[in-house]
Amino acid sequence: MNTIKLKLLTTAFIFILLAGSGESNSRGVSVDGTNFAPLVNIIDNQLHLKGAALLRYLVFIKAYAGALYLPEGVDGSHALEDTPKHLVLEYRVAISAADFADATARKIKDSVNSETYLKIQPHIQSLNQLYRDVQAGDRYSLTYIPGKGTQLTYNTTPLGTVEGSDFSRALFSIWIGDNPIDRTFRDKLMGKI
């Protein structure tokens, strides 16, 4: 095989690998049939797709597909800082509002120290009152804007905003913190893999 054909085949192979890897590009990305746009505009912030992934529960059960958006130039390792961020989760299974509330409180408690947990507990309760039951195909999104708070949106309906940068950090830690719901999911959202 001549050198030119080998280079063309190698380039095509690399392109196919990258196209299927779930990495963001100018057209967005698709994860297990869920499409995520390359950009979202939130108030005065244009946020770029950092990464996307599928979360599985007990290995076989597809729980949800998610995508994380950050300002251009913000590395995923700085996602928990006081910077705008947007997390979208599209569910594959039905989950009750009560289960969301329990899981949120439990995972935040696992992610922060007891002093922080006590401080933000009223904020956790405020968020938990906003949850609704979801069916397969529904989306929740969390959007944090510094100085304004974290907004919970159900599909396209804003449900409410909870103030506090400490609360936002603890909430987003569920997915992208040191003790996340799943490390591979976290690393893919943050664009590490």
How does this model look, in words?
The chain is an alpha+beta fold. The protein has a single domain, classed as Chalcone isomerase, CATH 3.50.70. It has helices spanning 3-19, 97-111, 114-128, 165-176, 183-189, and strands spanning 29-31, 34-36, 39-42, 45-57, 61-71, 85-91, 139-145, 149-154, 157-162. The strands form 2 sheets. It has a 7-stranded antiparallel β-sheet. Strands 1-2 form a two-stranded antiparallel sheet. Strand 7 (139-145) and strand 8 form a beta hairpin. The longest helix is centred in the N-terminal third of the chain and has 17 residues, at 3-19. It is globular. It starts with a helix and ends with a helix. The model is unreliable at 2-25 (pLDDT under 50).
Number of continuous helical runs? 5
User: Numbering strands along the chain, what is their spatial order in the largest sheet?
Assistant: 3-4-5-6-7-8-9
Helices and strands, in N-to-C order? Answer: HEEEEEEHHEEEHH
- Kindly state the number of beta strands: 9
Measured on Cα atoms, how large is the radius of gyration?
A: 18 Å
Looking at CATH, which topology would you report?
Chalcone isomerase
Q: Report the portion of residues in β strands.
A: 25-35%
Question: What is the overall silhouette?
Answer: globular
Low-confidence segments, given as residue ranges, are 2-25
- Provide the helix percentage: 25-40%
User: In total, how many domains does the architecture comprise?
Assistant: 1
Biggest sheet architecture: 7 strands, antiparallel
The span between the termini is 33 Å
- Please tell me the overall pLDDT: 88
Q: Please report the first level of CATH classification, the CATH class.
A: Alpha Beta
